[in-house]
Amino acid sequence: MGQSTGQPMIEADGLCKYYGDFTAIKDVNFKIYQGEVVAFLGPNGAGKSTTMKLLTGYLAPSDGVARIAGHDMAHDRLAGAKRLGYLPENGPLYADMTPRTLLEFFADARGLTGAYRRERIDAVIHLCDLGQVIGKAIGKLSKGYRQRVGMAQALLHEPDVLILDEPTAGLDPNQIREVRETIIRLGKSKTILLSTHILQEVEAMASRALFICEGRLRFDGKPSELTKDGKSLDDHFHTFTAAPAPA
């Protein structure tokens, strides 16, 4: 269930989002502490992306509070954004740019200057292993490399917190392994929340799992807690998605 001391780096406090009569998420509560890698599980349309957009400040909650490193993302988003790296499912990549020119663009947008700007661009190129494609147009790269470029821009300003929406969606097995290894490396120094509906991702990368279905949080705990009864993660996924949402 995460660490019991220290400031939570990612916090959902009674988060709700309504669109007219439709409830996207309701009363979602969790805290993620420094150094945790947490998988956010659920079927398509369960509320994962909505929750992540609330946490990053891209959406305003109908009720409740989303915090990054203690900053209320509805009212103090700029301060929170300095601590946050966000990779949406279809990241902000420009096909005609190269990875280097894209990173230079985002470095300028984030106000990085001088030697620090150069150091950070070189650091994320190395960390995400982009050297072989650094001068190629992003539109000509494989999806695996495009994901790495997206990861590099999210890491450019040395954020403490990473929120990754479906980081391995649509990748082949080799690309999945590469992205997974990158996330595991990053998890040694960052707080990471990654959404997925691929159950193998949970066991491979996460120390904790959150499961959401029909906009309600159904489970918050270690992956091993789900399998100690002898059932697989697939079995529990089916159980959670088949059961009616709590009132």
List the helices and strands and how they pair.
Layout: E1 8-19, E2 22-33, E3 37-41, H1 48-56, E4 63-68, E5 71-72, H2 77-81, E6 84-87, H3 99-109, H4 114-127, H5 143-155, E7 161-165, H6 173-186, E8 191-196, H7 199-205, E9 208-213, E10 216-221, H8 223-227, H9 233-242
Parallel strand pairs: 3-8, 3-9, 6-7, 7-8
Antiparallel strand pairs: 1-2, 1-4, 4-5, 9-10
Helix pairs in contact: 3-4, 4-5, 5-6
Q: Tags for this entry?
A:
alpha/beta; Rossmann fold; 2 domains; 6-stranded mixed sheet; 4-stranded antiparallel sheet; 9 helices; 36% helix; 26% strand; globular
Describe the structure.
The chain starts with 7 loop residues before the first strand and ends in a 5-residue tail after the last helix. 36% of the residues lie in helices and 26% in strands. The chain contains nine helices and ten strands. It folds into two domains: 1-83 and 161-170 and 189-247, P-loop containing nucleotide triphosphate hydrolases (Rossmann fold); 91-158, no CATH class. Helix 5 (143-155) runs parallel beside helix 6 (173-186). It has helices spanning 48-56, 77-81, 99-109, 114-127, 143-155, 173-186, 199-205, 223-227, 233-242; strands spanning 8-19, 22-33, 37-41, 63-68, 71-72, 84-87, 161-165, 191-196, 208-213, 216-221. A six-stranded mixed β-sheet has the order 6-7-8-3-9-10, with helices on both faces. The protein has a four-stranded antiparallel β-sheet with strand order 2-1-4-5. With 247 residues, it is α/β, with parallel strands linked by helices.
